[in-house]
Design goal:
Lipovitellin-phosvitin complex, beta-sheet shell regions, 13-stranded antiparallel β-sheet, DUF6263
Amino acid sequence: MKIILSFFFAFVICFSGLSQTQKIELNLTKGQAYFQKSVVNSVVKQTINGQQVDINMTIAGQMKFMVTDYADGVYNMDLSYLNLSMKMAHPGGSIIFDSEKNDEKDIMSSVFAMMKNKPFQIKMTKAGKVTEVKNIEALYAGAFDKFTQLTAEQKEQIRSKVMQSYGDKAFKGNLEMLSAVFPDRAVAKGDTWSVKTQLEAGMSATLDGVYKLDEVTPTQFILSGASTMTTNKDISTESNGLPIKYNLAGTMNSLIKIDKKTGWIVEGKISQSIKGSIEIKANDKMPEGVTAPMEITSELIFTDK
């Protein structure tokens, strides 16, 4: 009888431990710096005038997040890039831009170098939502003045390209794609919750995701996520002076490891696949406009080191 009772209580205790709910959220320390390193590999396939054009791109960088204050569930942080790079291969050749490259003739690498160690500010909730991005324009302040060989129009084109990838809206969406995955309640292993994120990096898109707490280890929460991504086909953006609409849809799958003590994401892997078409509206350069099929696959790797 004692053996049966002992087994019963052991089973109850074990089951209770497995079903115990836990709050997963940021628990950062004022004055402490946190880091995020990212590598994004993308393949863009387009069919233009009956020919398929493939573009392979790798964007990498490391960021420092310094917590300067905390009040009412919101962290104030100073953010700065420690390094930046971009590699692109296409039918016309390949290019490499790198903040660590010391070549004044390489304009984009020089711009990346000048973006390093220039702090801008964000406010982030304990749930990983970015409520404000401030002074991000400081990244580019004076960055183009030294290139006297460029016309004002050329400088504006470069600035516009940089803003599409590193502007406030693009930055907010890209960061929240990884950071805004926390549940709005205490959860147990196996529980799921929904998260919606707006992306603005080059094109306007909405992510509708469902996340699940897969595992709880002594040091980490391990989450998985499955999301659908849909672009806003009614919003047009401008690229190289051309008005473009994106009509794309697809999926995003995530695997994320979170430090139990700080809530900081120590490792993440995100796979994306979207397809559809882009529409270049009729304009002076292309009076008839054009619609072209497009497919984008990406793999994003994030670490805290």
